[in-house]
């Protein structure tokens, strides 16, 4: 069993599941693997992304248990997608989050076909957890693929996790006034204004709250775009914020909402902003 899990996980790592095309190929690979092992599979597609559900057991078999795993991984360098075993551990992009769990769930599904349980099992393999899951898990829920209990194979250091933070992803765009770099006082620097606003947002009251399982929310400045030339005062800047709010917090709360949708300014020029919620 261990060798099979290592081989299957290694195959998934090597697929570099970071683009829709590669993710869809991985989904088709998993569908073929499951079918060859006797597992009935249904292939879904939503906005160009494919996903799988595999149902084992009859509708009247009792409670329904959902096993949910995602095939997409975050981007990495080419060497990250070369799996290797060291010290009894398998390394490679996605081995921990969460292709190892996907391989384990696939093997379990193959076993359960021949050893029926006293409940109905639905295996879900989805394509977009790293970007929020709306097109994958969210879509399957809308289609009625739900259960009485869900086990998600996300890494938890072998502890049982019963909560997760929510995600608020925001792009804030700042407009300034361009000028030559030798006369910066004639312009309004959009990057400077953006950084001033970031420091203000990072100290909002909601960032000091805690919950039973999480000491604080997280507030990550994930990406900055701005500036066109070294000898120019930048008149555009975008901040990409990744806010993980607590289960006890509501993203519509004005204190959290202000992290993305407050009015920002660079001189007299207001910022244009786009808020994306998950």
UniProtKB/TrEMBL annotation:
Identify the keywords attached in UniProt to this record, alphabetized: Hydrolase, Metal-binding
Q: Which GO terms describe its molecular function?
A: acetylornithine deacetylase activity; metal ion binding
Q: Which InterPro entries match?
A: Bact_exopeptidase_dim_dom, Peptidase_M20, Peptidase_M20A
Metal-binding as a keyword of this entry, yes or no, is yes
GO BP: L-arginine biosynthetic process
Recorded hits in PANTHER family, A to Z, give: ACETYLORNITHINE DEACETYLASE, N-ACETYL-L-CITRULLINE DEACETYLASE
**Name by which UniProt lists this protein:** Peptidase dimerisation domain-containing protein
Q: From what organism does this protein derive?
A: Brevibacillus centrosporus
The record lists the lineage as: Bacteria, Bacillati, Bacillota, Bacilli, Bacillales
């Amino acid at each position: 069993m261990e060798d099979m899990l290592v081989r299957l996980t290694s195959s998934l790592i090597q697929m570099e599941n970071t683009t829709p095309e590669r993710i869809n190929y991985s989904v088709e690979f998993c569908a073929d693997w499951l079918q060859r092992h006797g597992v009935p599979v249904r292939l879904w597609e939503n906005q160009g992304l494919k996903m799988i559900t595999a149902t084992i057991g009859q509708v009247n078999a009792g409670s329904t248990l959902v096993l949910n795993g995602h095939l997409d991984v975050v981007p990495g360098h080419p060497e990250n997608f070369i799996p290797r075993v060291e010290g009894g551990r398998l390394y490679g992009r996605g081995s921990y989050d969460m292709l190892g769990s996907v391989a384990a769930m696939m093997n379990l599904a193959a076993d359960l076909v021949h050893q029926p349980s006293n409940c109905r099992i639905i295996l879900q393999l989805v394509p977009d957890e790293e970007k929020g899951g709306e097109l994958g898990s969210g879509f399957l829920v809308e289609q009625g693929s739900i259960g009485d209990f869900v086990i998600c194979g996300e890494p938890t250091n072998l502890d049982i996790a019963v909560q997760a933070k929510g995600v608020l992803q925001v792009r804030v765009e700042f407009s300034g006034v361009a000028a030559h770099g030798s006369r910066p006082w004639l312009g309004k620097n959009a990057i400077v204004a953006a950084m001033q606003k970031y420091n203000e947002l990072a100290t909002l009251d909601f960032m000091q709250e805690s919950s039973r399982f999480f000491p604080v929310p997280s507030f990550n400045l994930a990406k900055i775009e701005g500036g066109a030339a070294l000898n120019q005062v930048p008149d555009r800047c975008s901040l990409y914020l990744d806010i993980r709010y607590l289960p006890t917090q509501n993203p519509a709360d004005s204190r959290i909402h202000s992290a993305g949708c407050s009015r920002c300014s660079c001189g007299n020029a207001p910022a244009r902003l786009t808020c994306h919620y998950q």
